[in-house]
Amino acid sequence: MHDRELHRQILGLTYPWQVEDIRLDLEERQVVVIAGYVSSEAVGCPSCGRTCGRYDHRKRRWRHLDTCQLQTVIEADIPRVNCPEHG
Fold first, then answer.
1. Is residue 53 within 8 Å of residue 82, measured between CB atoms?
2. Which of 20, 23, 62, 81 has the most Cβ atoms closer than 10 angstroms to its Cβ?
3. pLDDT in the model for residue 1
């Protein structure tokens, strides 16, 4: 099993999310997992679930449970939608 597939399963990522890269930073004692959204897929409005067009993304970074005594940090560009009802 490759490291990307391992982290995808550990984090419970399902399509259209995927692990794009993993960086090991021993100086900071971190494993940084870069997650991405398949750009060709439509995005659902978080309020109503309606499929909407994506207009941009917002970079987010948050801490996950530790991996082998190293901090696990997830980075992702979270897609933002333009819902006709909710904005």
1. yes
2. 81
3. 55
Question: Residue 38, class by beta-carbon neighbours within 10 Å (0-12 exposed, 13-18 middle, 19+ buried)?
Answer: exposed
Q: What Rg do the C-alpha atoms of the chain give, in angstroms?
A: 15
Of 35, 30, 29, 28, the C-alpha closest to 10 is 35
Q: Give residue-wise pLDDT tens across range 50-82.
A: 888 888 888 999 999 898 899 999 999 988 888
CA 40 to chain centroid: 15
The closest alpha carbon to 56, from 85, 34, 82, belongs to 82
pTM equals: 0.79
